[in-house]
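Researcher: Structure prediction, please.
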Amino acid sequence: MFKALSYQIGSDSNDEAPKSLNHLAKELKSLKIWKRQEALLKEKDRMENYQYLPTLEEELRHLNKKQA
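Model: Predicted structure follows.
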């Protein structure tokens, strides 16, 4: 249900070249957006699991009745 996101800062840049302030600002903005997306995906996954729990409990009760 949960798809993990990955983020790498400057993975395609040369380590020797200094980064411009504009480039660093864009990376920071991207990282902030990524962190927010990841938090929202985790919350979504938690809510989906919480909503699925009663269904699983009902199926378990039904199986226990069949077994008895």
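Model: The chain has a mean pLDDT of 83.
Researcher: Thanks, that helps.
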